[in-house]
Amino acid sequence: MGSLLEKSLNFKKNVQISFDGGNLTSDSGLILYKEFDERIGFSRTIKDVFSVNDSVNHREHKNEDVLRQKIYQRIAGYTTDDNSDELRYDPTLTTILDKISLASQPTLSRFNNKLNEDNLKQFNRINELLLDKVYSIDMPEQIILDIDSTNFETYGKQYGSAYNSHYSANGYHPLLVFDGLTGDLLKAELRSGNVYTSRKTVAFIGPLLKRYSNKYRCVDIYIRGDSGFALPQLYGIIEEHYGKYAIRLKANAALYKHSEEITARMETLCKRNIYDHHVIYGEFMYKAKKWTKERRIVVKLEKKEGQMCIDYTFVVTNMTSHPEAIIKFYCNRGTMENFIKEGKNGFAFDRMSSSSFIANANKLQEMVLAYNLNNWMRRLCFTNSMKALRIETVRMKIIKVAGKLVKSSRYLKFKLCSSCVYQNDFWQILNNINSLPLLN
């Protein structure tokens, strides 16, 4: 049926526009994600593990289907529940989810408010199972647990939101652990906004260390953290599970005293040349009052060009490498800031819109799955030229591909844009997906 409205344009009279182009979509690239989903058993794992305490059993949209819809919408850049009303009949999303129409905004909002603490455990289990499947395809030799906290700003009366003086903002203060080598988000936990950085860190990371030390004994485990995570209990549990760590210490009088010899070497260098840049590395053994034993401290002294004072960096470690190598290893934890930025800018990690704390905590876990599905596909299946792309660029190049769905008695055929610049990459990604083993 033709469009009821057709218009000619003033800038060129023979150009006309109408909305009768057919069953079109702007997100055809999501089909690649669904193909990858099937390959690693992403949706199957959700269906096997995810269960909501819901007395309604005659609903049109099952809870696990609503969860998958939210994940796919988020990957495509539709990060709010309101977007679902605009996407109700999108050809790509309805095909991926095998639906006539998508769940509406009220359905998605009701879903958020039905989730509880049991669902938090289920999300964590789903992520673990999927990580196991990814490791069965690409087993790492090393895993670097980069632990950090961040700020999720809030603007309403969300329960648990509080002022955090470090960030000078109201919000939540979650804990996050990424693999520093792959960018995989291994675990996330929402916390109240006013808790200290290290609050419940041992309880948070302990099960993760136990899981990796028991299940992946051939994999070397390393942990990096800033001075907010300088806890003797954390050092102990890492050592108990045979992990290696490099955690920064806050400078204090005792550490300065132990580094006097290194400081003297720096002062000698500065007397010879007071203006140039100087760096010295050293080490010593140290036992704080609350520690059960001595531990190795590596230290970096740096005087920048034209600067009179000396900057100290103290790192406690059980690694045996040269002090310079350990300091460089620690400083590489800065890559985690890029992962956090990817989560916030690309997947809206920090948009906690519910008034309920538990609803927001579960929403963060939905985002973890969306982030990881994209990250796993990017590193396992993308072409070499695209492996380093952030999600905003991935959407522009791979996901936001115009397409037309043509239905016949036997097939659903997606006819994609003939002038798509990244056709070769699209086909190569699809070939890479199909070359993966089919996981249960």
TrEMBL record:
<dbReference type="InterPro" id="IPR047960">
    <property type="entry name" value="Transpos_IS1380"/>
</dbReference>
<dbReference type="InterPro" id="IPR025668">
    <property type="entry name" value="Tnp_DDE_dom"/>
</dbReference>
<dbReference type="Pfam" id="PF13701">
    <property type="entry name" value="DDE_Tnp_1_4"/>
</dbReference>
<protein>
    <submittedName>
        <fullName>IS1380 family transposase</fullName>
    </submittedName>
</protein>
<feature type="domain" description="Transposase DDE">
    <location>
        <begin position="9"/>
        <end position="437"/>
    </location>
</feature>
<dbReference type="InterPro" id="IPR012337">
    <property type="entry name" value="RNaseH-like_sf"/>
</dbReference>
